[in-house]
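testing teh design pipeline on a random one, pls ignore if ur not involved
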């Protein structure tokens, strides 16, 4: 089925406060993933693998690194109409405000979208981890002549109150939608998910249908909805409930792995699952690769190391390293005797020269990477961090949440986070 006249819009999200400090200096979709990717590479790659090559990424917070990544990564042939472009929030005479919500972000960018004679608009999120062939999603949308189709996933009760929940009739048409209901409102959204092909056991454990925040609209219907009431700024809270009352809104059931990477805990767990022998999300798929920037780095050098259940990116130099269940990002340099257990090391944006390393040594500054005999457990080390020798990042006080006074480290859900460009001196214990 042709995907012509289908355009994708990827929502860059808000300020990403729940992912702070990883979002301190970057937009949420630009947060590194799996040692060498960025979160935004997932929906963009899903689009490209589904034959959708006209893609806008909407953003307004800390967008410089996201702009750079998009510009350096996604370049289509001169003979194609494909593009991936950033649309940053802009103030205009008719629209003086920043994006107020998901629907408002799309409303404000309609002048850019309408130039492409769009028939169907695919609305995606920039911080989800999943693989989807959007052609099947669009096929369901076209077969049911839907004005709006929402991708849904069956979910458990303990997860349900974090999502928009919906009910359908026997034909999959959505008849009710509630955004993040609690208590009695939550219980009222229970459905018999066997109607969607779940086994009785699965249906018992997953009696709710949650919106994935992935939509496909008939473009003219979307324009009509967004112009109906300027105070509607959010798809989940306002636009979708209104659409259900007036238009044909259908559900598309997704049965694959899907993770909303909205918090430090979910980011940490989703990343570390990638190192398991059979990860829920698999980068090793030749049919549908996840694309990212080509960096032309040398292969990693590994000397006298004991490494298991880990991912090692290109351009690393590892000497005498012990690592378990860890992700070692691009250009990481780790010295003799270092131990990493359940660590996400995001790597570095550049190599330090031998002159840099000597100057660091003379000035008592650790090099970018991990120094000798340093022990790190259950931690996220952001890019270009300098961790000295004999450092222990082990959360020895078993603290759940803490911000250091000088901003050199943070603890969230018991996970230590060393922010981008931080310096942790020799002998530090956290």
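output:
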């Amino acid at each position: 089925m042709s995907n012509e006249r289908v355009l994708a819009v990827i929502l860059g999200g808000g300020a990403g406060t729940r992912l702070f400090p990883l979002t301190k200096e970057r937009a949420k979709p630009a947060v590194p993933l799996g040692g060498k990717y960025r979160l935004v590479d997932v929906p963009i790659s899903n689009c490209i693998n589904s034959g959708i090559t006209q893609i806008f990424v909407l953003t307004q917070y800390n967008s410089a690194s996201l702009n750079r990544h998009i510009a350096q990564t996604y370049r289509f042939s001169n003979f194609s109409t494909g593009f991936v472009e950033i649309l940053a929030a802009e103030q205009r005479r008719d629209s003086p405000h920043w994006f107020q919500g998901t629907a408002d972000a799309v409303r404000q960018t309609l002048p850019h979208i309408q130039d492409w004679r769009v028939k169907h608009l695919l609305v995606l999120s920039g911080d989800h981890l999943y693989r989807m062939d959007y052609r099947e999603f669009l096929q369901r949308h076209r077969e049911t002549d839907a004005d709006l189709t929402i991708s849904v996933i069956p979910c458990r009760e303990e997860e349900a109150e974090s999502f928009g929940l919906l009910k359908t009739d026997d034909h999959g048409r959505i008849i009710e939608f509630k955004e993040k209901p609690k208590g009695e409102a939550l219980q009222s959204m229970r459905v018999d998910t066997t109607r969607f092909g779940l086994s009785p056991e699965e249906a018992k454990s997953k009696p709710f249908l949650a919106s994935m925040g992935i939509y496909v609209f008939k473009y003219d219907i979307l324009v009509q909805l967004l112009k109906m009431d300027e105070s509607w700024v959010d798809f989940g809270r306002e636009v979708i409930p209104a659409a259900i009352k007036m238009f044909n809104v259908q559900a598309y059931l997704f049965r694959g792995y899907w993770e909303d990477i909205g918090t430090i805990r979910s980011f940490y767990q989703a990343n570390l699952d990638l190192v398991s022998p059979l990860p829920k999300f698999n980068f090793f798929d030749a049919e549908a690769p996840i694309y990212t920037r080509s960096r032309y780095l040398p292969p990693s050098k590994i000397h006298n190391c004991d490494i298991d259940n880990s991912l090692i990116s290109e351009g690393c130099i590892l000497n005498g390293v012990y690592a378990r269940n860890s992700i070692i990002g691009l250009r990481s340099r780790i010295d003799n005797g270092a131990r990493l257990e359940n660590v996400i090391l995001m790597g570095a944006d550049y190599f330090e020269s031998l002159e840099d390393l000597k100057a660091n040594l003379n000035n008592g500054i650790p090099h970018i990477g991990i120094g000798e005999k340093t022990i790190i457990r259950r931690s996220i080390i952001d890019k270009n961090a300098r961790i000295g020798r004999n450092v222990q990042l082990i959360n020895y006080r078993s603290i759940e949440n803490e911000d250091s006074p000088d901003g050199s480290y943070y603890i969230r859900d018991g996970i230590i986070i060393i922010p981008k460009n931080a310096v942790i001196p020799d002998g530090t214990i956290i």
